[in-house]
Amino acid sequence: MFDFKYFTPTKVIFGKDTEKQVADLIKEFGGTKVLIHYGGGSVVRSGLLKKVTDILEEAGINFVTLGGAVPNPHLSLVYEGIELCKREGVDFILAVGGGSAIDSAKAIGYGVANDGDVWDFYDYKRQATGCLPLGVILTMSATGSEMSSSSVITKEEGLVKRGYSSDFGRPKFAIMNPVLTMTLPDYQTACGCTDIMMHTMERYFSNGGNMELTDALAEGLLRTVMKNAVILRDEPENYDARAEVMWAGSLSHNGLTGCGNDGGDWATHKLEHELGGLYDVAHGAGLAALWGTWARYVYKDCLPRFKKFALNVMGVEAVGTDEEIAVRGIEAMEDFYRSINMPTNLRELGVDPTEEEYADMAHKCAAGVGGKMGSAKVLYEEDMLAIYKQSL
Amino acid sequence: MFDFKYFTPTKVIFGKDTEKQVADLIKEFGGTKVLIHYGGGSVVRSGLLKKVTDILEEAGINFVTLGGAVPNPHLSLVYEGIELCKREGVDFILAVGGGSAIDSAKAIGYGVANDGDVWDFYDYKRQATGCLPLGVILTMSATGSEMSSSSVITKEEGLVKRGYSSDFGRPKFAIMNPVLTMTLPDYQTACGCTDIMMHTMERYFSNGGNMELTDALAEGLLRTVMKNAVILRDEPENYDARAEVMWAGSLSHNGLTGCGNDGGDWATHKLEHELGGLYDVAHGAGLAALWGTWARYVYKDCLPRFKKFALNVMGVEAVGTDEEIAVRGIEAMEDFYRSINMPTNLRELGVDPTEEEYADMAHKCAAGVGGKMGSAKVLYEEDMLAIYKQSL
Question: Please, what's the b/e burial string for A226-265 (b: 16 or more CB within 10 A of its CB; e: otherwise)?
C-alpha cells in the first residue's frame, strides 16, 4: 500500500431542481461578478441558461457569458475567457455544461489568477499558484471534472492536447441535477458511462500497492454503473438510474477509487487521446474500442488484478485457470460494451487508419508520456503501435 | 432516492511518518499561533507530543498546549480551552489524539469563533456561524471525527451528553499514520472497528430512499473492516490492516455511506449513549452489546434491507425465507462480534441494570430524541425499554 493524499473540497448539491440554489452558492463562495461559461447550444435550447441568468439577475449578481466550449476545448477560447474576465472584473466562474465547459473554465481560472501564458501549465513548464474560484452546474455525467483537479485543453496550433492537474482548480461547488442529463442522446449517455467506468478501471489495473478498501469501493462502483447503463439504454428518463450514474461519475474521478495504489495505469486513456486527436470520435467510444485489445495485451503481467476484476466486477465463475478467468472477464466487459452499443474495436468505431497514421499515433503517444507508460504492463512505442493495430 | 449534500473538505494526508508534515499544513491553512489539544497521557508517553512540538518549534510556529480531553469530553475543559485561546491569541487548533480530543477541539473552535455560551449549540438553541480552523493528527480509528461535521460533548452538571454538527467544524486537514494506532490495547482496537462499522450500518438500515451506489460502497466497506478487524486481533502491528481500518473509519462517517437515503436509523447509537451515560463502558462495546437485540426487534419492519445485508455483507446463503435469511445475517454479525471479543449482550458487557435504571435509560433516551427515533422501525419509549431489557 502506498501513502496517499485525498482532497475533495467540492461542495456537492445533488438532486432535483438544485440549480435553483446557484445564486446562494455563488454568494457563499464570495462571487460578485460572474463569468457564465458554457458549451454548445444545448443549454440555450433546453432553457437552462435562461433559467440560470434569471436566478442571478433576481439575486442581484452581475454576470457576463461566454459560450463555445467544445469537446477537447480550445486554448483560443480560454484566452478569450481570460481577457473577458480581466476586462469585466470577474471574480467567480460558473461552468454550465459537461467536461468541456468545466475544463475550459478551470483553464480560464488559472489564466486570470496567474501572470504569464496559461498554456505554460499545460505544457509542464510551471505550476499554478491559484485559480479563480469556480462552480459547476453539471449537465452530463462522464468526465468527473466537477470534483476533480484535472482539466484537458487542446492548443489548435499542431493540435496539441494536454492535461493539467492542480487542487486549486477543484470546483468550489457542483450542482448535480440528474434531470438535466435526460436530454442527452443515447450514444452520449453510453459514452459517458464508459468514460466513468474507465476512470476507475485505469486506477484498478495497477501493479502497485493496492488497498482492499479502495478495491471494494471500485468494484461496487463499476457494478453499479454497468447495471444502470443498461437501464438507461432502455429508459433514458429513469431518474434513479441517471442519479446513480451521475454520482458514480464524480466519485470515479475525484481520487476515491485510487487511494493507496501507485496512481494506476492510464494507458487506454493515453492511447485514446491520440486517436481523438486524429479522428473526430467521442472519447468514451474511443476508450471502449481500445480497451479489450489493451487488456489482452497486458493481462498476463497483471494477472491477479484481472482475475479479481473478472470475479468481483464481471461476475465470472471461478472455474478454470487464472488466465482463463481473466480472459472471460475481458470478454464479459466487451459483451457489456456491445450491450450498450459501444464499439469494441476501431472498425466498429468507424476508423481504419493507414500505416502512417498508426505510426503517427504511436509516436505521438510515446512522446507525450516520455517514452513509456502503464502500470499493469509498461508499454513502449512498439507496444503502443501493436495495440493500435490489433484494435482494428 | 433523496436529494443530498456532500461536503468533505478535509485534506487527508495518509501514510507512514506523515506527522512530519504538520507544520507545513498548519502554515498552509494560515495558522500562526496554535493550541495543541490532546487527551490522556498516551500521546505524551509515546513521544508523539514531543515530536509535534519539536516540529512546530523548528518551523517557528508558536503554540500552547492543553491536555485532558477524556472519552465523552467535558464542557469544563472546552471552556478552559476557549479562555486559553482568547488569552493567547490562538488562530489554529491542532487536535492530537482520537475522537475525544477532536470533538473537544471542535467545541473550543466554536467557542472562540462565536460570542456567547458554546453550550447553546449543543443545546439546540442556535447555530454557529464559524469555527476556528483546526487540524488533526489521528491516533485512533473509531469515531471518524477527523473528517466529520459532528462532535459530542458532555456537560458534567446533570451528565448531559449532546452532539452538534456543523460544516464549519470539519477539520482543515487530517494526518493519518496507521503506525500511530498500533499501540492501542486490543480491546480498544476492536471497539473502534465496531464503531466504524456501526456508522455505516446506522445509515444502511433505513426505510427511505436508498441508493444502489451508496449501498455498494457501504457493503464493501463493511466487508473490508470485518476482515481486517480479525487480522488485527491476531496481528495488532499489521500495517496494511491498520491502514484499511483507519481509512474506513474516515469514510464511514464523512457522509459517503449515507448519500441519497433518509439519514439512517441511529437508534443503536442513541440507546448506547444512555448506557454510556450510566455506566463506564467503551462506546464500541456498548454498541455491540445492543445491536443484535435492536436488530431482532426491528428487522421485520425493514426486511429487504436486512436480507440484503445478510447476503451482501455477511455472506449468508440465499436459502430459506427472507426472514430466515435476515435472522441468519444478524446471527452472523453477532458471531463476528464474538470473534473479536466484543460483547453481544449487556451481561457480557459487564452490566446488569436495575428496573429503575432500565426505566431511567429508556426515559432519557426518549426525551433526548423528542419521543421517537429510528428509520428501520420507529421506536417509542416502551420499545426502547424493551430493547434494553431484552439485551441482558
Answer: bebbbebbeebebebbbbbbbbbbbbbbbbbbbbbbeebb
